[in-house]
Amino acid sequence: MKKSLTLLLPMILSLLLPAIAMAAPSSTDSQTAKLLAKAREATAKYHDVSVALADGYVPVGPCVQIPGIGVMGIHYMNFALASDLSVNEFAPEILLYVPYGGGYKLVGAEYFMVAIGTNGTYTGPWFGSELPAGWVWLTAAPTLFGRPMDGPMAPHEPGMPWHYDLHVWLWQGNSEGIFAEFNPTVKC
């Protein structure tokens, strides 16, 4: 019995240690939680969509959803923030709303930064869906909430540049995770 327990103990530990490590809080998790709390505090005023409009956020399309995947919501973009080539956890470039009770409900934020690159003859943002030969990105993925933003990614629609973005579900739980692109718990 003692010999079989000796043989099983390493196997049991190898199965349990990853779960224990994931459950244990780390300083990074603590820092991320603090940043998320401050981001909620900074965006709380935007529960009133008229405040968002007064601060320069404008709707840029219908409610984005993919059946079977989830919802992004209605994007309200602040073009001044989106064009300044910087990101800040406490000033998102885009606010995400969904229709709710005859109005709009703030569910999250999207951080957005234009990707700058060069092909030797042109330096700046690239707006086409296909990159020219020899294209090199000059901007690395910015870091927010202790994680790199997604990208660079191709434009989602005509006129949009290649960019980095990060969705953060500050005001709505998301079964896919707080930084997931789509949220299956909300509806358009």
Could you describe the 3D structure shown?
The protein is an alpha+beta fold and 188 residues long. The protein has one domain (29-168). Helix content is 26%, strand content 30%. It contains four helices and twelve strands. It has helices at residues 2-23, 27-43, 49-54, 79-82, and strands spanning 57-59, 64-66, 70-78, 94-100, 103-114, 116-118, 123-125, 136-137, 143-144, 147-148, 150-153, 163-168. Strands 1, 2, 3, 4, 5, 11 and 12 form a seven-stranded antiparallel sheet that branches. Strands 7-6-8 form a three-stranded antiparallel sheet, with no helix packed on it. A hairpin with a 2-residue loop joins strand 9 and strand 10. The longest helix is centred in the N-terminal third of the chain and has 22 residues, at 2-23. The radius of gyration is 21 Å and the shape is globular. The N and C termini lie far apart (60 Å). Mean pLDDT is 85; it is low at 1-27.
Q: How many beta strands in the DSSP annotation?
A: 12
Number of domains: 1
Query: Count of helical segments?
Result: 4
Order of helices and strands: HHHEEEHEEEEEEEEE
Task: Provide the fold topology.
Layout: H1 2-23, H2 27-43, H3 49-54, E1 57-59, E2 64-66, E3 70-78, H4 79-82, E4 94-100, E5 103-114, E6 116-118, E7 123-125, E8 136-137, E9 143-144, E10 147-148, E11 150-153, E12 163-168
